[in-house]
Amino acid sequence: MAKKKPHQTESLDAWAAQLAALDGDDTTSRRRKPPITPQRIVQAALALVAAEGFDALTMRRVASALETGPASLYAHVRDKAELDDLLIGELCARVELPTPSPDAWMMQFKAICAQLRDLYLANPGISQATFSGAPRNLHALRINEGLLAILLAGGVEAQPAAWAIDAAILYVGAYSLERSLRQADSQGVDGQPCDRDGIAARLRMLPASHFPHTVAHLREIVAGNGHERFDFTLDLLLRGLALNSPQPGQELAAGPGKP
Question: Which InterPro entries does the record cross-reference, listed alphabetically (predicted)?
């Protein structure tokens, strides 16, 4: 019986490999995973936060979602703190900044804060990452720059504008965190509802002799639907700025005999 020549064997092996690939048996190509990148890490982390909340976020959980080990993540992200900063930066990059308008500066300022609030609420608890220190991400600084431009266009002086932005950013983060925590833990330590009706029921039990004003104004204390309290606080901040700032094209009137 004649033996197969070496080149014939190689040719048949290559032919068999091509046929196997047609049937989807090329396991090497099927098992090849996309490379780990900072963007993939961020997207996997955000998906985890959106589904389970910020407290569930760990480097190990993100690595598991990407079907790799934690060591693969550390080649791109230094630690959990840097990952948190990247997540906040990603959310801030999604905020649309308008061209500053002297006639609509309050509305523009509130709209940016509302965008940031909604992004935080869509990723429960993530706003607590903004309290860890000074912003290190350019996307986060972009929000500050946009808000500062809007306040300056509205005639607010630089110093109160800078402090107002700091207060507003802190408020947006705290408001979003509190809402997220209430949604995650809808019951108090005693197992009773901790929503507005539940709070009202607790306050209603207070003795008027010790808490006369709280009992008398209970309806006002628990009032507010949706984000009414959020809007109220920002309105209070911005109207305070307006009262103490000359509007564009106007100057503070000088009294008689004053230069």
Answer: Homeodomain-like_sf, HTH-type_TetR-like_transc_reg, HTH_TetR, Repressor_TetR_C, Tet_transcr_reg_TetR-rel_C_sf
Please say whether the beta carbons of 106 and 238 come within 8 A: yes
Tokens for 77? 């992200």
Chain centre to alpha carbon of residue 185? 20
Our CA angle for 215, 216, 222, nearest 5°, is: 70
User: Whole-angstrom Cα distance, residue 149 to residue 257?
Assistant: 35
Q: Which two tokens stand for residue 101?
A: 């308008």
Q: Are 179 and 125 in contact (CB under 8 A)?
A: no
- Specify the residue for token string 């196997």: 20
Residue range 213-258, pLDDT digits in tens: 999 999 999 998 889 999 999 999 999 999 987 655 554 444 444 4
Structure tokens at 66: 């990407």
Placement of tokens 């801030």 in the chain: 92
Q: Which pair of structure tokens corresponds to residue 62?
A: 């993100």
Give helix then strand counts, H and E, for the chain: 13, 0
Among 138, 117, 135, 134, smallest CA distance to 126 is for 117
